[in-house]
Amino acid sequence: MEKVNLQGVRLFAPASIANISCGFDVLGLCLENIGDYMEIRRSEKAGIRITSIKGQDLPLEAENNVAGVAGLAMLKAYNAKLGFDINIEKNIKPGSGIGSSAASAAGTVAGMNYLLGNPFTPEELIPFAMEGERLACGSAHADNVAPAILGGFTLVRDTNPLDVVKLPTPLELTATVIHPKIEVKTADARAVLKKRVSLETAIKQWANVGALVASLYEEDYALLSRSLVDEIVEPARSILIPKFTQLKKACAKAGALGSGISGSGPSVFALSRGMTDANKVAQAMYDVYSKTEIPFEIHVSPVKQTGVSFLEDLS
Amino acid sequence: MEKVNLQGVRLFAPASIANISCGFDVLGLCLENIGDYMEIRRSEKAGIRITSIKGQDLPLEAENNVAGVAGLAMLKAYNAKLGFDINIEKNIKPGSGIGSSAASAAGTVAGMNYLLGNPFTPEELIPFAMEGERLACGSAHADNVAPAILGGFTLVRDTNPLDVVKLPTPLELTATVIHPKIEVKTADARAVLKKRVSLETAIKQWANVGALVASLYEEDYALLSRSLVDEIVEPARSILIPKFTQLKKACAKAGALGSGISGSGPSVFALSRGMTDANKVAQAMYDVYSKTEIPFEIHVSPVKQTGVSFLEDLS
Question: How many helices (DSSP H) and strands (DSSP E) are in chain A?
Fold first, then answer.
């Protein structure tokens, strides 16, 4: 049922970490403390309007904006005569590697769905949000929009047809993310990847993916730690991230379960058991990067169990 | 505590399926209805003696027999002054691809451990049994001995150091196995594999491994079915198995969740939900192979939830 009296909603659109070591192109997780705020309002005028974006300089035309494109894809599937206005308070920097475009796209479609009385299941919203990713990076991947919509850990088994598995998330799992303020172009991050990999290394990778999935179900932090390994993508891409090796060593020494490149970088994430360890890891990351000239930000956040959060109904 | 009065045990040493489509070199499962019978008895004389082998022509010298080698590895770790006599009734044909050597090695160490009052955990027995595999095929792999000892589905994350995860097994999961009586040499099965694979295909493989593991925890047979895919090893190895494509199509048509090469072949397995479907798959396999000149055997078996079964204490 459409909630006819509900005119708007204020929501939190979470950042996310894609890839997660061995889970390149497949795994993602949702973050609790990092994300954008958005207001989605019903409008008499058909279509999507981005009425304001605070915090970042991004296109306002719906067709050139990831939120706009995702919203339009949803309207096209549901009812093209409806209209929505969108305000975005952007806290996640585009290009940081923690799902900036995914947050905007996921927030838009989740918010519209909420106002329409949930005609779509969360899983059904993912393809609309993926259209935003297609605009942002040229390929309609689901690695970030799936966790941003479903929450927790997600596994994208296939994108055509879309086949996403929501995985359980151990409650104490906490992420530390450092965002070195350098630009890593997605094209460069793709270009450094080898098109072919050794079968032996690939086998190790899928053994680790299988073990990582099991560790989430078992809440086995030690197994999770042993599985957070990537011998394929990380060795190639880490050359684009200054001090990556030092960061990784420092995270391990500080007690992290594992660490790796967030998305296609430049952000680097670590996972820890509990906030205390995650804060120690943040300090260790700080100690490494404060010796460089590179500006950076560090975030500490539990893994968010649910996706987009609805904060307030707006009249 | 050593059970000093327990002189012997009769046991069932199960066959197993290794690889399981996307899980090449990593996944394995234990079979309920196919396996060897063994009698393990304490002896006054130190060491391991293979006192008889029925059903197959295999070496009796302990050092040249997989059961002997596995038993000796265990004695060396525990107490080299102890002695055991082993009778084997061999039902699993060596070279069939359903873990013949693993059954003998697993049965031996599990039986000895039972008679000694379980000084080792099941996981600790795996490395001893792996020594049998080293004798049988030149590499101490755990893909078959892990499920034969632990039961159900197992994932070998690493062999050095050994890191095995026991996975849950949906109760209705039933295997159908056809053993075409042709020889596929392990060396040939290895030789047809390409040393390098495309990153794109490898990503699909680890997406499927992750989804398959999730499907076992979720008891999601549909997801299991979608995950039982192998675009890397199966296309290369299936050329060694006559009528493989026809078998696979017939299994799918008969209602199997999926099918693939068992171990390094020549046996082909299918997994179904429930015995009725598994029997239909058996008929479909029969219809394909009865049109060839190749002798064959077909087995239908639930996945065995536990490993080696102890049938009777012997005085």
Answer: 10, 12
